[in-house]
Amino acid sequence: MSHTAHIPSHRKPRPQRTTKLRAGVAGGVLSTLAVAGTTGAAHAAEPVTETIEMPTLTTELATKVAATADATQQAADTYQLQAEQDAAAAQAAKDAKKAKAKAEAKEKAEKAAKKRAAEERAARSAERTTLSASGSSASASAQSVAPASGSVGTVISFLKAQLGDAYVMGASGPNAWDCSSLVQAAFKQAGVDLPRVSQDQSVAGTPVSLSNVQVGDILYWGGAGSAYHVGVYVGNGQYLDAANPSKGVVIQDLSGYPASGAVRVL
Q1: Strands 229-235 and 218-221
Q2: Do the Cβ atoms of 214 and 221 come closer than 8 Å?
Q3: Where exactly are the structural domains of the chain?
Q4: Amino acid 14: pLDDT
Q5: For the chain, what is the largest distance between any 2 Cα atoms, rounded to a whole number of angstroms?
Q6: The predicted structure's pLDDT at residue 150
Q7: Measured between alpha carbons, how far is 94 from 99 in angstroms, rounded to an integer?
């Protein structure tokens, strides 16, 4: 036995609070866990009762939807139709404007052409020599040709260039002619297309009286539309023609062989 066993210890006894506190803390934690577990279990056990109600497609609602779709389609069709009508109207206006401009240009050209034609006729009339009423004056000036200008001058110049050529029925130049082919070729030089035969040439222009015949007028023998011979008046009571096989192309005096009528094409 220790020699100190009988000596009472002076150490104070260790308080037990720490053990109790720890036990309390542990109990609190366990209590908290228990409560949490109970709450979680309670929530886990509760069924979900919230539902989402979807609208029911009733007949009335379907009708309204269809009506809305029809109205939308009708509006689209109306818009498209209006767009097409606007485009057609714009194109029509454009075409009308173009047609108007074309018509105005044509009218202007026609007026200019008429003015030029009138001026040419006036110039030809001023320079032509009318048929003399005196047979003696015509005889005195035999084989003379009145001056001509412009298109008429072209015709007369061509005819004079053929003087002395042969007459051959059906021939059309350049060194032999019949009466109508010579007249046709002469006027072609001035840009005038005449028919080929005498009958048609006798009605190809404007009829004029023999008392008013002018240089370049076509003379014919026989009836209008049934003529059998043609020539061209060259002034001073004379005409130039492809007469016959014995004469060929010559200038002759009207007093010796009066024409039946005359037409004017220039």
Answers
A1: antiparallel
A2: no
A3: 84-127, 135-264
A4: 59
A5: 207
A6: 66
A7: 9
Quick one: tokens of 32?
A: 């908290």
For residue 257, the one-letter residue type is Y
Provide the token pair at 21: 């506190």
Q: Read off the DSSP letter of residue 145.
A: -
Rounded alpha-carbon distances, angstroms, from residue 67 to 55, 70, 73, 74: 19, 5, 10, 10
Cβ-Cβ contacts under 8 Å for 219 (sequence gap 6 or more): 213, 230, 231, 232, 233, 239, 254, 259, 261, 262
**Confidence tier at 64 by pLDDT (50, 70, 90):** confident
Decide yes or no: CATH 3.90.1720.10 for domain 135-264: yes
Q: Which two tokens stand for residue 51?
A: 């539902």
- Say if residue 114's pLDDT is above 80: no
Assigned token pair, 234: 């060259």
Tokens 């023999």 appear where? 210
Beta bridge pairs of residue 262: 208, 219
For the chain, the first-to-last Cα distance in angstroms comes to 179
The torsion angle over the Cα atoms of residues 41, 43, 49 and 50, rounded to 10 degrees, is -150
**Beta pairing partners, 234:** none
- Cα 42 from chain centre: 91
Reference 154, options 205, 215, 208, 212; nearest CA is: 215
Pairing of strands 176-177, 166-167: parallel
* pTM, rounded to two decimals: 0.48
Helix (H) / strand (E) containing 233: strand 229-235
pLDDT at 42: 47
Give the whole-number percent of the chain exceeding pLDDT 90. 44
